[in-house]
Structures are given as C-alpha cells and as structure tokens.
Amino acid sequence: MTRALKGSGFLGLAVMMVVGLHQFVILSGGSAVPPWMIGGHAHLGVLSILAVVMGFAVPALEVTGTLRTAVTALFVAGQWGIPGIVWLGEGFGLTFLMPTGFLWGGALIVSMLIMFYYSVTEPANAAGGGSSSFAPGDD
C-alpha cells in the first residue's frame, strides 16, 4: 500500500513539472497563465510531496489493515481530486464538478485524522519517537 502512496506522489510530481513547463511556454509566448492552472499546479505539487512523505509515515507509525487501506485510498483520491476538479471545472468549463471539492478535501482530512490518531497513540519508542542516545551533529 505504501508503494501506491509513493508512486502516486512521484507521478504527481512529474505531472506537476510538465504543467509547470507548459506554464513556462505560455509565459514565453507573452500570455498570462490562467489562475486555475496555477492553482491546480500548486495543489498537485504540495499534495504529491505529502504522498511521498505519507508513504514513509504509514509504515513508521505501524498503520495496518483496513485503516492502512483507507489512509492510502483516501489520500490518493484527494491528491488527484483536488487539482483535477480545478483543472476540469475551471479549465474545461465543467463547473458542475466543483462541489466535489468537498468530497476530495474530506478524503484528505479523514486520511490525516487517521494518521493523527496513530501519531498520538503509538508508544513513544515507535517510529523514532523515543529519546536518543546521540546528540545531533548540527547543534
């Protein structure tokens, strides 16, 4: 399941970079980049970075079973749904899709709340949360 998060994250970053290059082409041609394109680009970038981080956080916090599946599915759906509705709704005139933003945003929130639960209920020694026997090198 964490492969899905990491893979979706890296794919999202690649798509975000392609959109960024497309925006550069638009600007190079002397035109302004539409705000909906910028918004979708930014959301996909941030959510994709978080997907990669989640790919490491889920096993580190020992999220298992149905909740692991839920975290993965909900996060990936939200990662693509939020920028997708911005691009489809505003960019392609399919404004009837815009209310689904609450669905995609809700999916992300539920995913984060599950991770919050695991982060505060895991023992202190899980996932490096305990005290350390070495001092950081940058102090």
TrEMBL record:
Membrane spanning residue stretches: 7-26, 38-58, 70-89, 101-120
Keyword flag Flavoprotein: no
Keyword Transmembrane helix: yes
Pfam families: DUF8059
Top-level taxon in the UniProt lineage: Archaea
Keyword line: Membrane, Transmembrane, Transmembrane helix
Span of domain DUF8059: 1-139
Alphabetized InterPro entries for the sequence: DUF8059
Name of the protein described by the UniProt record: DUF8059 domain-containing protein
Organism: Halorubrum rubrum
Upper lineage: Archaea, Methanobacteriati, Methanobacteriota, Stenosarchaea group, Halobacteria
